[in-house]
């Protein structure tokens, strides 16, 4: 084929979660409800950890950022997906697709490492409580969060640039509900060995280092708890970690299910279902996990609602 005769792709078509016409409205309603709960739950966590004076600690500072990440990641994916349920032409421009992939990568990588940062925070709180405010000072908190976002942004730039460095000149139909690296590379009409290798190495490296930090932190936490003589102390320590351990298990469990499948049973449809879980369902569940198992957050919510009611009554009079 003569290079000058190649027609370059200028837009992509997203198949979505399902291409069955009879399911579009019911599935739209389900995902609209999920996204609405995600927005309310995560904005609630962000608001409470900002305005409540009793939640101005490193633990809740770190809790605020997963809420920001979950809200942002869902907002990158959900609105476009919801619109596509209602329109017949489910297209996205070349540059819109590249932007969505880059933004998605920023927030998913940030979430991977923010869970590791939170595990380190819990390790210091339980294993070195007397040095906690020194080791996890305000400056260290800001540094850890800044490095997480800086690294995730750098990773997103490199990976998305590689994905869009190849040629797209044949099919432009993406078997997904958003622009993701694997289904995009499957459409390329040029050699994808290098970008596929970079995507795989980046994902594997990020997962390995993040999970190593989490596992080492919790191994030391468990050993420290087992050495405690007081059953009340052990119960309090486990309670401190319970919410984060639940969130870590759900998030990493989904990613490991996706990446450790046998190649014989691996498919883009399976990836799509796993992606629904970690881009939409988990961001909805996390605020519930952190608030329902956390007395401080529930107490802060009661104070916030009480102050809000008092303010409304004052305004009426």
Structure explained in plain terms:
By secondary structure, this protein is an all-alpha fold. The protein is 74% helix and 3% strand. The chain has helices at residues 24-51, 58-86, 94-127, 132-135, 138-163, 181-185, 193-226, 231-259, 268-292, 295-316, and strands at residues 11-14, 91-93, 173-174. The chain has a 3-stranded mixed sheet with strand order 2-1-3. Helix 1 (24-51) crosses helix 10 (295-316). The longest helix is centred in the middle third of the chain and has 34 residues, at 94-127. It is globular and about 70 Å long. The mean pLDDT is 87.
Compact overview of the structure:
The protein has helices spanning 24-51, 58-86, 94-127, 132-135, 138-163, 181-185, 193-226, 231-259, 268-292, 295-316; strands at 11-14, 91-93, 173-174. It is mainly alpha-helical and 317 residues long. A 3-stranded mixed sheet has the order 2-1-3.
How does the SSE layout of this entry go?
Layout: E1 11-14, H1 24-51, H2 58-86, E2 91-93, H3 94-127, H4 132-135, H5 138-163, E3 173-174, H6 181-185, H7 193-226, H8 231-259, H9 268-292, H10 295-316
Parallel strand pairs: 1-3
Antiparallel strand pairs: 1-2
- The number of helical segments is 10
Structural category is mainly alpha
Question: Which geometry do the CA atoms define?
Answer: globular
* Portion in strands: under 5%
**SSE pattern:** EHHEHHHEHHHHH
Number of strands: 3
Q: Give the integer mean of the pLDDT values.
A: 87
Roughly how many Å is the radius of gyration?
Answer: 22 Å
**What composes the largest sheet?**
3 strands, mixed
Q: Separation of termini?
A: 78 Å
Largest beta sheet: strand ordering: 2-1-3
Helical content stands at over 70%
Keywords: Cell membrane, G-protein coupled receptor, Glycoprotein, Membrane, Olfaction, Receptor, Sensory transduction, Transducer, Transmembrane, Transmembrane helix
Family: Belongs to the G-protein coupled receptor 1 family.
Subcellular location: Cell membrane
Function: Odorant receptor.
């Amino acid at each position: 084929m003569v290079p000058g005769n190649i027609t370059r792709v200028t837009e992509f078509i997203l198949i979505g979660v399902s291409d069955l016409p009879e399911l579009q409205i019911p599935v739209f309603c389900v995902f609209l409800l999920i996204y609405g709960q995600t927005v309310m739950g995560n904005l609630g966590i962000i608001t409470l950890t900002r305005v409540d004076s009793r939640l101005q600690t490193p633990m809740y500072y770190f809790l605020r950022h997963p809420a920001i990440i979950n809200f942002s990641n869902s907002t990158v994916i959900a609105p476009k997906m919801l619109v596509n349920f209602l329109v017949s032409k489910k297209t996205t421009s070349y540059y819109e697709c590249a932007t969505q992939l880059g933004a998605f990568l920023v927030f998913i990588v940030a979430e991977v490492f923010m869970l590791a940062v939170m595990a380190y925070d819990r390790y210091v709180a339980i294993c070195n409580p007397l040095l906690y405010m020194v080791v996890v000072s305000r400056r260290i908190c800001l540094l850890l969060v800044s490095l997480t976002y800086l690294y995730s942004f750098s990773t997103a730039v490199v990976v998305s640039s590689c994905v869009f460095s190849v040629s797209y000149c044949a099919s432009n139909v993406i078997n997904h509900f958003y622009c993701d690296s694997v289904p995009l590379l499957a459409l390329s009409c040029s050699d994808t060995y290098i970008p596929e290798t970079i995507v795989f190495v980046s994902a594997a490296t990020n997962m390995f280092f993040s999970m190593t930090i989490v596992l080492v932190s919790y191994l030391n936490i468990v050993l420290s708890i087992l050495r405690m003589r007081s059953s009340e102390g052990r119960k309090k320590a486990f309670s401190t970690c319970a919410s984060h351990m639940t969130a870590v298990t759900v998030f990493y469990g989904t990613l490991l299910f996706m990446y450790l499948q046998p190649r014989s049973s691996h498919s883009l449809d399976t990836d799509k279902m796993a992606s629904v879980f970690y881009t939409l369902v988990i961001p909805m569940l996390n605020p519930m996990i952190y608030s329902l198992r956390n007395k401080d957050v529930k107490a802060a919510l009661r104070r916030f609602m009480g102050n809000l009611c008092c303010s409304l009554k004052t305004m009426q009079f």
